[in-house]
Design brief:
By secondary structure, this protein is α+β, with helices and mostly antiparallel strands. The chain folds into 2 domains: 203 residues, no CATH class; 151 residues, no CATH class. The protein is built from 9 helices and 16 strands. Strands 9-8-13-12-11-10-14-7-16-15 form a 10-stranded mixed beta sheet. A 4-stranded mixed beta sheet has the order 1-4-3-2. The C terminus is likely disordered.
Length: 374
């Protein structure tokens, strides 16, 4: 069976209520399969009791058995700290959009969802628009979601779980709205938002630029490598080149010899050079194909996965995998180019910087995201 998402009612303020009935536990469609079922006892206890309380910031977290790597990679890219270790303006705003109601419930505002709602209201029949953009998560829903952290939701940070619950509700609203309007369920881009990729699971499967837009209201530029077939990409292996801590200290060495030779004049490498040294000015993610089954229990070898990009040097690109955000990986730039099937860049300040760096390919309707070849 599939635990289909159920939209909650509206409260007096017009906010969508997320109660315990809206906290889902999908079993198929790429999420936790019945034969994998529960986590081991030790993991179940760890997941249940290590979801941090609200502390006004995004701490380290791990993806659960849910296909929302696109969303978690976007969250991490938004919350990458400034070079001096201070909180980014985007993370600060994200925290302001999560309100503790003082009674065990929380209200989450999604700025991009509000823009999508406005788009539909301006172009369709208002009485059929079910998108709210603001979500009150009841105390019982918080309790149930924490119990399912590491399974249906992420583990390690309560703010992340609350954002997952809000995103799941928004995409449920979007699906219901499109059904009410008689629009197809196929993927469609609207004002920076897209319809859910899976009918029954409204959180799994999506695009990083969509997640960033819904969380911040900022539009991204989205580059993909259409020059390659899927079999031509270098596959991503977690920890292949070792790990470093967030402060740059080595915690696990990689291969003794790594080739840093690459075509420095390729459009993709020139794009990386534009970012190098200016990482705190952008929110960056990359899509890759995996060489092995993921530790999240959902990603299968050959499937796509999303990573956050946090640092670029002449030799490597440093990324963070939502499977475990305490670990940073350094990937040689040549291998990184060969891995990247899509690359999302969101300027924190003014958009539109990247048009001159690559060959224009096409632009999605309404200026949602600019798509280019590497």
């Amino acid at each position: 069976m599939v635990s289909t998402y159920q939209l909650g009612a509206l409260n007096a303020d017009g906010e969508r209520i997320i109660n315990s009935n809206s906290v889902t536990r999908p079993l198929v469609y790429g999420t936790t399969r019945p034969n994998r079922g529960e986590c081991a006892l030790g993991q179940r206890l760890e997941y249940t009791f290590n979801s941090a309380n609200m502390n006004g910031q995004i701490d380290s977290f791990r993806q659960g058995k849910r296909g929302d790597c696109y969303f978690l990679a976007a969250i991490y890219s938004i919350c990458t700290p400034n070079a001096d270790g201070t909180m980014s303006d985007e993370e600060r705003q994200l925290m302001k959009n999560i309100k503790d109601n003082g009674d065990g419930s929380y209200t989450v505002k999604l700025p991009g969802a509000i823009e999508v709602r406005n788009y539909y209201e301006d172009n369709y029949e208002k009485d059929k628009i079910l998108i709210t953009g603001e979500y009150t998560i009841t105390k019982s829903a918080v309790k149930k979601a924490k119990q399912l952290s590491g399974k249906s939701y992420a583990y390690g940070d309560l703010e992340v779980i609350l954002l997952e619950l809000a995103m799941e509700a928004y995409r449920g609203e979007l699906r219901a709205t499109r059904q009410a309007l008689g629009l197809r369920n196929s993927q469609r881009y609207v004002a920076g938002g897209s319809t859910p990729g899976k009918h029954d699971d409204t959180l799994s499967s999506g695009y990083e630029y969509d997640a960033i837009f819904i969380l911040t209201g900022k539009q991204s530029e989205y580059y993909y490598n259409s020059q390659k077939n899927k079999t031509d990409y270098k596959l991503y292996t977690q920890g292949e080149y070792g790990y470093v801590s967030s402060n740059g200290q080595s915690i696990k060495g990689g291969p003794l010899e790594v080739s840093y030779v690459y075509n420095r004049e390729s459009s993709f490498q020139r794009m990386l050079d534009k970012c190098k040294g200016h990482e705190e000015e952008y929110m960056m993610t990359v899509g890759v194909y995996c060489a092995e089954d993921g530790t999240d229990g959902i990603t299968r070898a050959g499937n796509s996965h999303a990573l956050s990009v946090v640092k670029i040097t002449d030799n490597y690109v440093e990324v963070v995998n939502p499977w475990d955000t305490t670990k940073h990986e350094r990937i040689p730039r040549g291998d990184f180019e060969n891995m990247a099937n899509k690359f999302t860049i969101t300027p924190r300040k003014e958009p539109g910087f990247w048009e001159s760096t690559v060959n224009w390919f096409y632009q999605i309707a309404d200026g949602v995201a600019s798509c280019f070849n590497f």
